[in-house]
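Reply to thread "Modeling small-molecule complexes from scratch"

Following up on the discussion above, here's a worked example others can learn from. I took a protein sequence and the SMILES for magnesium ion and predicted the complex. Inputs first:
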Amino acid sequence: MSRVEGGATGAVDATRASWSPADQDSRADRHTPADRHTPAGRHSPTAPHAPEGPRPMYSLTDVVKTYSQKKKTVTALAGVTLEIPAGQMVAIQGPTGGGKSTLLQMLGALDRPTSGTVLLGEQDLSKAGDHALAAARGREIGFVFQGFNLIPTLTAAENVETAFADGSVPRDERRRRSAAALESVGLAERADHLPVELSGGQQQRVAVARALVKEPTVLLADEPTGSLDEATRDEIMDLLEGVWRERGLTLVIVTHDSAVARRAERRLHLTGGRVTEI
Ligand SMILES: Nc1ncnc2c1ncn2[C@@H]1O[C@H](COP(=O)(O)OP(=O)(O)O)[C@@H](O)[C@H]1O
Ligand SMILES: [Mg+2]
């Protein structure tokens, strides 16, 4: 490891300690983009972040996203400037069409903005090619969606294993890690069940296991409880919050539900493609 990387990691650990709840020492052990994104031997000429503040996981500057449909142009994001510190739990609320899913796509390296910059750690996602975006997703990001997005013909365990579809992990290890991920969401006994044999809450647990099995630094959830009744919603939120505390993830949850948003450390409102703090 180079001197630069070592220094950056030390700074992050110190930062994380100040961010962590007092009872969550394990959060300081997490890998962060700082130790993964700094290419060996490449020196960044200026320190990108103030030494005393929490290190940003994301830094968005003037992010605009427009979609062209026939002759119309829709502005989904109208200039979003936002920092999300590593390890923060953020809720994003706002009306339908406000730009929430589009913002999550920018954070999730699923798409690039029309203009503006999106930094994930030190990597500029707005300038990354498709291959680099896919690599960033695979390395850093887990997704959870409202509709669970499980493959109906695969068992719970096989669904979790699809996270390794890039073939980078040997089969035995894929199996072992998928089983451990299912166990961590309380579904070890359901590993061989198809999605149709599981309740909505159980299906979302499988989806959470799939999102976590590669140990991402960021978990992005788009209306993760939108299809669940209140009791199951609370169970899934307990799970997500527990994962966030134990693993030191950066957790971003889009939600219509104020009961969900209230559990976050920070609440943002997104309407007309513009973000405000609540
Ligand atoms: N792929 C797309 N093509 C065209 N318009 C889109 C696309 N995705 C989103 N939009 C438009 O962008 C705006 C924001 O959408 P979205 O980010 O999905 O909002 P939200 O998730 O808050 O409901 C809406 O007007 C929507 O119709
Ligand atoms: Mg949406």
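What I'd highlight from this example: Residues 1-50 have pLDDT under 50 and may be disordered. The beta strands are 56-69, 72-85, 89-93, 115-120, 123-124, 141-145, 218-222, 250-254, 266-271, 274-277. Questions welcome below.
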